[in-house]
């Protein structure tokens, strides 16, 4: 098994990103802030007392709907619709790629990757931006250690894609458009597929959906919706190839 470890780098904007996401994903933090902002807006607009109080109450109430089961379902469907269009079938077996998404997702993604390798549907596996234990789990599932590589260096989905593409071109040369079997949770899958496709890779997406509580599903749906909108602003959700 080939594994690359990296020392922790400077947090930089990650600290700000995580702080903002913490607020978004915490109703107890976000909704009072929205109420205060509504009161401030009412004061700036010189609204009468009663309409101002109504605005301060209704704004958090309306926003609280994003934490509902219906919002989770709608956002999940919207994210799925962001998958890039299908491309030509790969000429060689793809390399299975797993990205760091926590223990729950890794438990499912490693099983899917191992099954793909053992059935000849993938020729190797690369684990990007995750703990070494995820790669070691593949060993316990019967995967030959010579077929497992990875790194704990990538800290974002974009870095997952760039590092994986570089590794592929170094260790699996010969294909002008290397094919990968991208395995991650269904909420991250569309955004990750675009990131990998933008690196010149043929992407075959495969969702790994662990059993999660309603709150955990909502958290992933909200987090990935925010990340996908950011990618769209950055121009990273452009055209790319994937394979059915």
Mean pLDDT: 91
Tell the overall outline: elongated
Structural class: alpha/beta
Query: How many whole angstroms does the radius of gyration measure?
Result: 21 Å
CATH class of the largest domain: Alpha Beta
Report the biggest beta sheet as strand number plus sense, adding barrel if it closes.
6 strands, parallel
Strand order of the largest sheet: 1-4-3-2-5-6
- Summarize the amount of helix as a percent range: 40-55%
Number of domains: 2
Question: What's the CATH topology name of the largest domain?
Answer: Rossmann fold
CATH superfamily of the largest domain: HUPs
Number of helical elements: 9
Strand content: 5-15%
Secondary structure tally: strands: 6
The SSE string, one letter per element, is EHHHHEHEHEHEHEH
CATH architecture call of the largest domain: 3-Layer(aba) Sandwich
Low-confidence parts: none
Pick out its properties.
six-stranded parallel sheet, 2 domains, 244 residues, 12% strand, Rossmann fold, alpha/beta
């Amino acid at each position: 098994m080939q594994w690359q470890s990296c020392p922790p780098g400077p947090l930089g904007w990650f600290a700000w990103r995580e702080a903002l996401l913490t607020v978004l994903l915490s109703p107890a933090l976000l909704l009072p802030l929205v109420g205060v902002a509504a009161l401030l807006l009412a004061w700036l607009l010189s609204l009468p007392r009663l309409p101002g109080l109504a605005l301060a109450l209704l704004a958090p109430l309306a926003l609280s709907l994003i934490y509902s089961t219906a919002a989770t379902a709608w956002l999940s469907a919207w994210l799925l619709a962001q998958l890039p269009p299908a491309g030509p079938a790969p000429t060689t077996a793809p390399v299975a790629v797993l990205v760091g998404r926590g223990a729950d997702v890794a438990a499912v993604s490693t099983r899917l990757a191992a099954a793909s390798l053992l059935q000849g549907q993938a020729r190797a596996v690369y684990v990007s931006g995750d703990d070494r234990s995820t790669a070691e789990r593949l060993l316990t599932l019967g995967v030959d250690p010579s077929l497992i590589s990875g790194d704990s260096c990538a800290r974002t989905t974009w870095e997952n894609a760039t590092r994986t593409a570089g590794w592929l071109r170094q260790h699996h040369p010969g294909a002008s458009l290397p094919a990968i079997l991208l395995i991650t949770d269904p909420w991250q899958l569309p955004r990750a597929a675009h990131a990998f496709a933008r690196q010149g890779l043929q992407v075959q997406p495969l969702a790994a959906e662990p059993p999660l509580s309603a709150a955990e599903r909502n958290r992933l749906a909200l987090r990935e919706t925010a990340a996908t909108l950011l990618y769209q602003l950055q121009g990273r959700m452009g055209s790319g190839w994937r394979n059915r």
